[in-house]
Amino acid sequence: MYRLLTWSDYRKRADEIAAGLISLGIVPGDRVSMIAENRPEWLFSDIGMLAAGAVTVPLHAPLSPKQVEYQLHHSDSRGVFVSNQTQANKVLEVIESVPNLEFIVSFEPIETNGRIKSHTLATLRQLGFQLGDAGKKQVLERESATKIDDLATIIYTSGTTGLPKGVMLSHG
To answer: What gap in Å lies between CA 114 and CA 134, rounded to an integer?
Structure first.
């Protein structure tokens, strides 16, 4: 199903995703969530978000729509990556309650019925690729500007003592 990738391939895909996110207006510190099962696209996307300067917010794939709503809203996510229609449906079910969410990026084609701007991962990568050297330069500038104390990710606890807590992890 997947061909063996080199580290150069990995970097190229992550950089294209980063440049694609920059073309969508993501700026350093913006939160971008991801609801997906373990798969290579998860890794490319996570590194791409970080390279764009975004704060990654990984959500556990089995979460219910209500839990997804809470974490998307609480983290103030501007975008969300999803693996498939099942994960996208969780977002679409609660979209009205997450007013700052601007777009979905899907690993597989999905249907949103125009309720939110959407891209496949392939089209996001293409947006990044189209930026060419200017996009690569922006990604490198953002990476070099990242400090060890900058926020890298927010991971939510299981919430066994109430609502989940967002654990903030730095690049350090």
So the answer is: 31
Give, in order, the Cα–Cα distances in Å from 2 to each of 41, 47, 105. Answer: 11, 19, 20
SS3 104: strand
Q: What is the pLDDT of residues 3-52, one digit of tens each?
A: 788 899 999 999 999 999 999 999 999 999 999 999 999 999 999 999 99
User: How far, in Å, CA of 137 to CA of 30, rounded?
Assistant: 19
CA distance 107 to 70: 23
What whole-number distance in Å separates Cα of residue 22 and Cα of residue 108?
A: 21
Pairing of strands 166-170, 151-156: antiparallel
Residue reference for tokens 């391939």: 9
How are the residues of the chain apportioned to helix, strand and coil, as percentages rounded to the nearest 5? Answer: 45, 20, 35
Other CB atoms within a 10 A radius of the CB of residue 133 amount to 7
